[in-house]
Amino acid sequence: MVAAPNPESRTPKPGAMTTSPKPESRAPSPGTLPLLIEIGCEEIPARFLAGAQKEFGERLQEGLREAALLAGAVGEPRLQTYSTPRRLVAYVPDVLGKQHDRVEEVRGPAVKAAFDAQGKPTRAAESFAAKNGAAVRNLIKVSTPKGEYVALQKRIPGRPALEVLPEILPPVITGLSFPKSMYWEKSKTRFVRPIRWLLVLLGCGQGSRIIPFEVAGVQSSNRTYGSRVLGSESVTVNSFEDYSRKLRQAGVEFDPENRRQSVQGEIDRLLERDFEVVPDLELESWIVNSTEWTSGIRGGFHERFLHLPREILITVMRDHQKYFAVQDHQGKLQPEFITLLNWDYEGGLIRGGHERVLAARFADAEFFWNADQKVPLRDRLPMLERVTYQVRLGSYADKVRRMEHIAGRLCADVEGQGRLSPGEAHHAFRAVQLCKCDLTTQMVQEFTELQGVVGGLYAKAQGEPEAVWQAIYDHYLPLSADGQSPRSIHGAVVSLADKLDSVIAGFSAGLEPTGSSDPFALRRAGNGIIKISVELLPSLDLLELLKQASLAIQDKLALGVPSLQLSQQAAGANFGPSPEVPQQADVSDQVAAFLRERAESYMETVAGLRYDTVRAVIQAKSGGWERPADALARGRALERIRDGEDFVALSTAAKRTRNILSKSAKPDDLTGTIDPIDEELLAAGPEEDLYRAYSRLRPTLDGLASRDEYEEAFRVLAGLRSQVDAFFDKVLVMDDDIRVRRNRLNLLSKVNLWVFQRFADLSQIESRT
Questions:
Q1: How far is C-alpha 594 from the geometric centre of its chain's CA atoms?
Q2: In 3D, which of 368, 528, 504, 497 has the Cα closest to residue 435?
Q3: Beta partners for 144?
Q4: What angle, rounded to 10 degrees, do the helices at 396-416 and 422-434 form?
Q5: How many CA atoms within 13 Å lie on the side-chain side of 127?
Q6: Are 308 and 349 within 8 A, CB to CB?
Q7: How many CA atoms lie within 13 A of 213 on its CB side?
Q8: 451: closest CA among 473, 471, 467, 470?
Q9: CA–CA separation, 490 vs 471, rounded Å?
Q10: Strand 295-300 to strand 87-96: parallel, antiparallel, or no bridges (unpaired)?
Q11: Which of 260-264, 319-323, 439-443, 481-485 has the lowest mean pLDDT?
């Protein structure tokens, strides 16, 4: 049965996030009025709600600011926003009841045109004054960059908020953006869902006034609606306090943080500390943004289903039923679940319905598990010929063949570094061959979220070595720039081969990201490539691997028809012949630029380096971004030393050197190559000192670079400050003697290349004042 909600019974659990102070407890500032706005509409998708709430507050605040209706010296309202699936709410306690009067300066003709030589007003001054309803004696003189002009100061009275708000609120509402919007024929308004009511009140109590306007054919009013489940009628309100009380009585908790506490409290109440739910913040947020009033059910299922892998059970409960899985405090899954309803619940009828639905879903999963096992993954390889990867890139069988090629080169590199034995390389190669076979299983066709994971579970059940099944299980990881990486070097090889093929083939087929559009998810793949390179393959020369893989893949791609035939004997499968096709244009430069951008993004957003530090290490002459782990190590070392006095001065000298070489030097001064220094032309003193210091420095830097001791290398660089400063203070680089000038420019070129740009381009470092 459905019971009426009892707001007083809803108390946060101990230790839960406390509710923010209620806005109605704050008295409005003198001369201000509270403003309450509620956009009522049909159910907004849960994934859109938090963003819509945030944007609504931002747009309203900006609209009030532009309309000069914000109270306080800093012009910031105490604006608060709330949301449920059926409403977006904003409350501003302090809105000016009337705009402040303002003085506007109106500029007229130049002083010399407004007054004659005797200082008498001309016709121009009289006309300007009359046009603006003022006397000539009210004219003032103002100075401008163009000279002196006459002007008038006009006092413009402020308008009442009741007049201004109907003008600014409609565009605030209709300007909200959503990933997907609707529009309905009658009003032609675009919004996430049809708008059904608008509550817009200025003031409170008996003095509250409706702000009159219309959006999408809906007229504003002082009425709202309670829970749809309870069939509530419209409710008239006259203040935010009245709105809060009546909505909660009508089965609506409009504050998402209160609903989150309610979800957490219901879970604790139902489990009674016996067990715990499998932590899932994403599911919790989905429930918070899908309900207006939460009530929990603790249900169960037959223990026989626990023989299925944990991942399958949790996915069925989480992704298909939006249930929380339950485990004991040691992490062992229990034959129970928690689900949250959108109303207060009593009795077992609804629980029984949920249990029957879940039992049917588990029975399907059990059937798929048993049926899929009859065809081992290794026997599913030929089936990939019939599974389309992308219409211009062929089947998944073609993709696996391309991945084999990349993995072969990658394994050879990692073997050469001593991090992978031939036997382990065989396991990685085997995982590449089998990693996409689960796409042909009934389990993945029904539960697409489990692709990769199911392949790993099936490989484990079918006796594949641990290194193989774990690599298959992990090969879609990482799912984001800061997500979990594969747990082994084998998984890293498979994941990198998969993602690198996706990026290269995607660019070859013209599917590269553009602006905010990335339908082939290449940015996510690029982020994964950089993360794996940093965390699991630190010695990998990504640029060299990219060039080799790009040329090999594009040799076999033309007109969207793949034809790569690699390692068919090792795969143990008859993929069949592929047609010969013309060679494609090389896209390695495009992909390199794309991955460089991903490397910069990783170092800024994930590693937290300053943007100019990232720019400096990426543009280094020795290293650049080709080994992302090395670039990150140089960046972290630079962050630790860059604010020192000597290093700041050296960065300034690097900028000066760059400008001399790129701007001051004439084409005849530079030969295009860095020639040996003619020591006979060096002037005694600072010039010779700089050359000697530079000559001693180079072998030291070589040794530090070979050991990746970048922080010490930067400290050594900073020690060159005194010689560099003295050189620029005492030596004229652009000497009249062309031989001397060229020799000095040549010295600066060497210092620039082997000191200022070796580990990071120091000219990119911005000084902090």
A1: 16
A2: 497
A3: 147
A4: 160
A5: 7
A6: no
A7: 20
A8: 473
A9: 6
A10: unpaired
A11: 481-485
The pLDDT tens digits of the residues spanning 28-37 come to 565 889 999 9
Q: Is 27 helix (H, G, I), strand (E, B) or coil?
A: coil
Residue 346 binned pLDDT confidence (cut-offs 50, 70, 90): low
Bridge partners of 36, per DSSP, are 91, 201
Give the residue from 515, 465, 511 showing the smallest Cα distance to 491. Answer: 465
What is the token pair recorded at 51?
């963003």
| Angle (CA) 693 697 698, round 5° | 125
Strand 195-202 to strand 218-221: parallel, antiparallel, or no bridges (unpaired)? parallel
Closest listed residue to residue 756, CA positions, set 694, 671, 664, 666: 694
Distances (CA, A) of 77 to 67, 81, 83, 208: 13, 12, 19, 19
HEC sequence for 246-307: HHHHCCCCCCHHHHHHHHHHHHHHHHCCCCEECCCHHHHHHHHCCCCCCEEEEEECCHHHHH
**d(C-alpha 28, C-alpha 24), whole Å:** 9
Bigger pLDDT: 519 vs 321: 321
**What pLDDT score does 557 carry?**
63
- Tokens 């006979």 locate to 680
User: Can you read off the two tokens belonging to residue 313?
Assistant: 């059970």
Q: Is the pLDDT of residue 577 over 70?
A: no
Give the count of beta carbons closer than 10 Å to the beta carbon of residue 462: 13
How is residue 170 written in tokens?
């409609």
Residue pair 289/87 in contact by the 8 Å Cβ criterion: no
Pairing of strands 557-558, 209-210: unpaired
